[in-house]
Design brief:
Length: 115
């Protein structure tokens, strides 16, 4: 009796299309379009659900030296993985956001400490 494969959706929010091979099968991740892949493929290709994502970053060519870890993680995080397909997310709206008060310019009235 074999287990049925579980699928997740990967949405590429990077600047360019990604092409990889997993289990002798080519995968293409176009920018902004969700792609369904097995959980095993997501773990192997992107390090999804893994504590150590370095092997995935090396396989993808995102990291060549240990000094590039932060850059590699940032790039890997551009691949959104979840149980539901995600389209390109629009820039969040500023409606309802309270802005910080502007700094006072010199010459304005501001409270001063007594000496």
């Amino acid at each position: 009796m074999s287990e049925e494969a579980q699928y997740v959706f990967v949405t590429n929010t990077d600047d360019e299309e990604l092409r990889v091979t997993y289990a002798y099968e080519p995968f293409v991740f176009p920018v902004g379009k969700p792609v369904a892949i097995t959980e095993d493929a997501a773990r192997h290709i992107f390090g999804w659900g893994q504590t150590d994502r370095l092997p995935a970053m090396v396989r993808l060519g995102f990291v060549h030296f240990s000094s590039e870890m932060d850059k590699g993680l940032a790039r890997l995080d551009k691949y959104l993985i979840g149980s539901e397909p995600q389209q390109d997310r629009p820039v969040p709206s500023a409606v309802g956001v309270v802005s910080l008060p502007a700094a006072r310019r010199a010459g304005g009235s501001s409270p001063q400490r007594a000496a």
